[in-house]
Amino acid sequence: MKTPFLAFVTLLACAASLAAPLKLASPFGDHMVLQRGMPVPVWGTADPGAVITVEFDNQTKSATAGADGEWRVTLDPLTTSATPRDFIVHAASKNSEIENQKLTDVLVGEVWICGGQSNMERQLGLRSGQKPIINWESTAASANNPLIRQLYIRQTRAVTPQDSVEATWSVCTPENVVDFTAVGYFFARKLEASIGVPIGIIHSSWGGTIVEAWTSREGLKDFPEFNQSLDLLSATAGHLDEAKRLFNERLEAWYQANDPGSKEGASWNTPGLDTSGWETMNVPVLWEDAGHPGFDGVAWFRHGFEVPADWNGRDLELHLGAIDDIDTTWVNGTEVGTTSWYTTPRVYKVPATLLKPTGNVIAIRVLDTGGGGGLWDPKLPLSIGPADGSGQRTSLNGAWLVKFSTPLDPKNRPPADVNQSPNVPTVLYNAMIAPLIPYAIRGVTFYQGESNADRPVQYRTLFPAMIADWRKRWGEGDFPFLYVQIAPFRGNPPEIREAQFIALKNTKNTAMAVTIDIGDPDDIHPANKGPVGARLALAARALAYSDSIEYSGPIYETMRPDGPNAVLSFSHIGGGLVAPGGTLEGFTIAGADGVFHPADARIDGDAVVVSSPDVRSPSAVRYGWANVARGNLFNRAGLPASPFRTDVK
Q1: Which of 66, 278, 375, 522 is the most buried (most CB within 10 A)?
Q2: Distance (Å, rounded) from C-alpha 590 to C-alpha 225?
Q3: 262 to 177, 251, 295: CA distances (angstroms)
Q4: Average pLDDT for residues 340-364, to the nearest whole number?
Q5: What is the DSSP letter of 238?
Q6: What is the pLDDT of residue 208?
C-alpha cells in the first residue's frame, strides 16, 4: 500500500508523462526565413490548456492550447532582417514543467513555395539518368550565400490532410546547394541579387506527378471525373490488403485488354517462348539511356539461369534491384511477386519446386507510367541464390532479352494504385502542402504539366482550380503565382502549352515563364535551368514587388485579316518586337479549308504580318505549333513569345 506522499508523487509523475510535449509546426526550424511585411502565423501543438508564448523581433505573443492541444499566435508584420536571431517559444502547463524551444539563425525576408514535378524537383547537382545542369559545378562553387535558404519537404503522400510533414531548412553553401531545386535556386539567386533581402524557398515537389494530386478534395469539387478515384481512396484507406487486391485486379484487366505479352494463352512469361527478334539490354540501366528515350508503357525482360548442384532442393531468393514503376515477375512461368513502386528493392522467394537444373527462365513485365523506366538502379545488383543466405549468389547483372510491348495511350491509361501511387487526386496536397498552411509566403513558383499533357483541355480549368484552391486555403488573397510553360519535347503536344497559355489569360496575378528557346527535343528534363529561374525572378519583381520592368515575352492578343495577310497584335512587346537571326520563323497560316502552310512573317511596328502564296484569305495562324516548338519571336527585353494558335476551340 502506497503512502499518501508516494501516491502524490506518483500522480505528478503520471501527469507529467501524459503531458503532450511542445511542438512547432513543420515549417518552423533552425535557419528558417520568415516572411516580412505581413502577419506571420505561428502554430503547433502542446499540452491542452498550456499557455504558449512566442518571442521574436521585440514581440511577445501568447495563446492557450485548445482541448485538442493545438495553438496558434500571429506575429505583427516583421521588418527585413539579415541578422541571424533566435526565435523563442515557451509552454507553461499545470501538467508539466515549463518547456522552452529556441530556434537559431532566423532571418526575415521573402518566402516562396517552389512546387511541381521533376523539372522543379531536379536538384542542382548530378542525378542518375539525367543530363548535368548546365554550369552546375561553377554555380555550386560560388553559391556561398547565407541569405538564401531552402526548406525541403520530404516526398510523402496521405489520404487526408495532414498536420505535419518531415521538413528541413538548409543554408545555401557550396556543399548544400547541390541538393537545392535547381530552378528554385536560380530564382532565389536572381531575386536576392535584385531586391537585396533574405530569400527562403520551400521546396515541395515530386517528379512525374499530376496536378490533381496537388489539389484538395474541395478544390476538385467541379471535376466529377475524379470522384471514383477519391471514393476508392477513402474506401480502402487503412485496408491495404483489400486496396492491393482491387488494384491488382484492375491492373491485370488492363494488361489483358492492352498488352499483347499478357494475352491469355500467349503470355511472354512462358519458358519456351520464341524470343527471336528480341533485343538485348545490359541492366541495371534506365531504358531511356539504353536506346529508348521517352518510352512510357510496357516492356518485357527475360533472362536464363542454371541451378548448381548444391542448390538442388533449396528455395532461392531473387534480387532484382529497383524497377520503375511496376513489375510482375515469373520464374518458369509461375508468378513469384509483383511490386508497385520505383525505388523499392524487389526481393522474391523462388520455391525449389519451380526449379530445374538447367534452362530456368526469369520473365519480368515492367510498366512505366512516366519518367524513367526499367531495371534501373546500379546501387542494387541483380542476383539469385539460396534463400537462407548460405552459399554463393549468382549475379544477374548484364545482358537481358527485352521486348517493348505497349506504349501508353493517353486515352487509356492503366489504373493508379490509389493507396501507394503519388498520381492520385489530393494525396500530395494532403501530405506535402496542407502541413505548410498557413506559413506566411509571398507567392508560388510552379513547374508542372508534363504529366497532364495527355489531358490538355481538362488542364485549362484544372490548373487554375489548383491555383484558386491554394490561394483560398492560405487566406492571403490572390498572391502571385508564377509558373513555367513546359519546354519543347517530342513527347509533349502543343495543346498542353496552350492550356497553360489559356490559364494565364484566365487567372489573375499570374505570370508564365516561356521556355520555347531553352528546351531539349530529346529530353523532357532540359539542362538549361538558369534562364528558367531568371525569368521567374523577373515575374516576381514585377508582380510581387512592383518593379517597372518587362517580365513576359510577347503575348498574342488578336488577329485581323488584311487581304492576303493576317495581322497579329500582342501585349508585352517590351520595347518592341524582334526576331533574333533576322527572319521570323515558326509561323503557319490557313485559309477557309483549314489546311496550314508554312508562312512568311515580318514585324511591322508592334504587330506581326503573316502570309503565304498558298493562302489568299487567311482564317487562322499558328506559331510554334508542334511538340518540338520552334520560333524566334522575342521582345527587346530578351523574352520569347509563347506558342499559340488563333483557331483555338
Answers
A1: 375
A2: 35
A3: 46, 11, 19
A4: 94
A5: T
A6: 86
The three-class DSSP label of residue 304 is strand
Q: Which residue has the cell 537444373?
A: 357
Using pLDDT thresholds of 50, 70 and 90, give the confidence band for residue 18: low
SS3 546: coil
Reading the block at residue 373, the C-alpha cell is 523506366
- Helix (H) / strand (E) containing 486: none
Cβ neighbours of 626 (radius 10 Å):
16
- Is the sign of the CA dihedral 153, 155, 160, 162 positive or negative? negative
**Non-local CB neighbours of 246 within 8 Å, separated by 6+ positions:** 232, 236
Q: Classify 215 as helix, strand or coil.
A: coil
Q: List CB contacts of 203: < 8 A, sequence separation 6 or more.
A: 114, 120, 150, 151, 152, 153, 180, 181, 184
Distances (CA, A) of 309 to 319, 336, 346, 357: 20, 22, 26, 8
Give the type of residue at 171: V
Closest by CA to 526, choosing from 295, 128, 183, 206, is: 183
Whether 487 shows a pLDDT value over 80: the answer reads yes
Amino acid at residue number 591 = G
- Which whole-number Å values give the CA distances from 205 to 150, 180, 428, 543, in the listed order? 13, 12, 9, 23
Which pLDDT value is given to residue 500? Answer: 98
Indicate whether 241 pLDDT > 90. no
Computed over every residue of the chain, the mean pLDDT equals 94
pTM: 0.84
pLDDT for 262-316, tens place per residue?
998 889 999 999 999 999 999 999 998 899 987 999 999 999 999 999 999 999 9
Cell numbers of 422, please?
Answer: 503519388
Who's near 478: CB < 8 A, 6+ residues apart? 471, 508, 509
